[in-house]
Amino acid sequence: MRFLKFLLLFVSLNAFAQQGGMWIPSLLEGMNENEMTSLGSKLTAKDIYDVNNSCLKDAIGHFNGGCTSEVISPKGLILTNHHCGFSQIQSHSSLENDYLKHGFWAKNFQEELPNNGLFIEFIVSIHDVTNDVLAAINDNMIEKEKQSVIDKTSNGILKTWPKETWQDAKIKSFYKGNQYFLFVTERFDDIRLVGAPPTSIGKFGSDTDNWVFPRHTGDFALFRIYADANNRPAKYSENNKPYTPKHYLPISLDGVEEGDFTMVFGFPGTTNEYLPAVAIEHITEAYNPTNIAIREAALKVIDEKMKANDEVRIKYASKQARIANAWKKWIGENLGIEKSNAVEKRRAFEATFTKALKEKGLEKKYGDILPEFDRLYKEFEPVNIKRRNFIEIFLTTNELMQMTFRTYQIVEAINNNPNVFEPAKADLTARLKGIHKNYNVDVDRGVFNSVMPLYTNHVDASIYDKTAFTDLDSALKLLEGTPEDVLKNINNDAAYQYAKPLIDEFFNVIDKEFQQKNEPITALQTRYMTALMKALPNARYFPDANSTLRVTYGQVRGYSPRDAVYYNHVSYLDGVIEKYIPEDYEFDVPQKLRELYAAKDYGQYADTNGKVPVCFLGTNHTTGGNSGSPAIDAHGNLVGLNFDRVWEGTMSDMNYDPEICRNIMVDVRYILFIIDKYAGAKHLIDEMELVHPKR
């Protein structure tokens, strides 16, 4: 365990040392700083992370816990992706004010729209607390004992850690439980919608272009942080003022060229770069295909209904995007793993690891790891697939089953403790109202008929004609009366009667077996990480993503996805017009944008060749959670907005390959062009600091 003292001091560089990796911003001095300089960066480690002075990390916010955002003006103006703010844009939309279709632009502070539940969190400081967290751990403990001690110790550290009253703190695990960092944070809850382009710009290309290049999507939206009179976090109030940030990003008008340095700063969600080959095989050959099939069946129904009805289109826009995103990502992930020969390469690496164990006399201690992985995954595969298929149907694609699932949880809570009846009833009421806000029974029935046969042979769509759950008023009536009345009403409902045996099986059989068989795999993965670093101490190890603040650096680069095909590093507005299909839900182009293109009315936002750049590619190692992350140039200026990866490179969560892994960014000049020339929101441009670092 004490090998951690040199964990972050590896000095050996491999062929791709300058590409790949999601690095902790407080630990950039030394190797990372030197690598960034060699790639063209003019930034120091303290420019990026500094506790005592304003720095880049002060402009980077965790957007609603799932995306990234950045401050781009001294008045707390926030930039993130259109798809990150999609549910907020949708929630403010109606047939009368269709902000999804027409866009939204507040003309002043008073017109900016508040968003209940939306928050942005900033990192104040980062601290290594590994020695304290692991002080009481020993090798004789089983995994549950270790985790219990770690949780107890971590809670004790958090209780006494010095911070301001409006700040919070959390401890996160790194290197599969071999290292721990504490993050002091500030969370702002008054976040208001400022501007969003129409979906025909913000989601241009929709499912067809998702995860692919060339891309022509203006995937951005603007929000603003509001704070109290002392510039501190506060709940929504009309008295709150625009937040004055510690730092905001100047915006470069000079654009990017191939080979330019790029740094993506954000909150990547989850990666698993150190999985054994057998795990990658399991995911791509067994686990992914079944889930792809379920989502594909659901999307076929939803897409047809959305095209036929505007009301359905508005209601299901966010759901459809969420379902489609992972569906296509998993397909690309499988293709990338196959194309890059990832499994074969991982097995070759494992042979090197096994040889190193023998050479260092570690075979007796760690030689069982790889054979044990093979045995455990063989047992784990069926239950892992069954469990995920259940989640896909009952929590992701079908809303009637989701309502029965949530109801089941409440019923179980009441059965176990009658005293929780009132709060449980309130919780279920809120969930039902949330689902019904954007619910259409015909769509949901179609989804049920399509996805349920992929899970069970017992499919009974007649429950839609008998259940109370498909209508909000009748669903809420189930919850009227005494606890006994409510339980009786629920248990007599046709949909609940249908779903209950399946949910019972999930909780009492499937999930229990999953936890039982996943626990030793998790423990073995921790041992494997330890063994790797001891057997191959000169290899390069970066911590997997875990939704904490990270830096990934690289360069602007095109790529060749297959034989005789090469994608340039940049796409242009010309490509938007080339793809234009009138009235098509994916490729329609607003008339105003077509007029600007025809007149070549580009203002100061054209490239040196007179074209408006839309998107560009980089070698930055990104994943989910990096959506909305700023692309920062060598001088610390904003040049783009990260929003996607190329299809062939989505496997970078398990296997980063610098030959084909690319992240896709909206060129900031396209964003400014849309705000200024298309939307006429020049007042927002005037807030920003526009610079020319290359002149």
Automatic annotation (TrEMBL):
<keyword id="KW-0378">Hydrolase</keyword>
<keyword id="KW-0645">Protease</keyword>
<dbReference type="InterPro" id="IPR019500">
    <property type="entry name" value="Pep_S46"/>
</dbReference>
<keyword id="KW-0732">Signal</keyword>
<comment type="similarity">
    <text>Belongs to the peptidase S46 family.</text>
</comment>
<comment type="function">
    <text>Catalyzes the removal of dipeptides from the N-terminus of oligopeptides.</text>
</comment>
<dbReference type="InterPro" id="IPR009003">
    <property type="entry name" value="Peptidase_S1_PA"/>
</dbReference>
<keyword id="KW-0031">Aminopeptidase</keyword>
<dbReference type="Pfam" id="PF10459">
    <property type="entry name" value="Peptidase_S46"/>
</dbReference>
<keyword id="KW-0720">Serine protease</keyword>
<feature type="signal peptide">
    <location>
        <begin position="1"/>
        <end position="17"/>
    </location>
</feature>
<protein>
    <recommendedName>
        <fullName>Dipeptidyl-peptidase</fullName>
        <ecNumber>3.4.14.-</ecNumber>
    </recommendedName>
</protein>
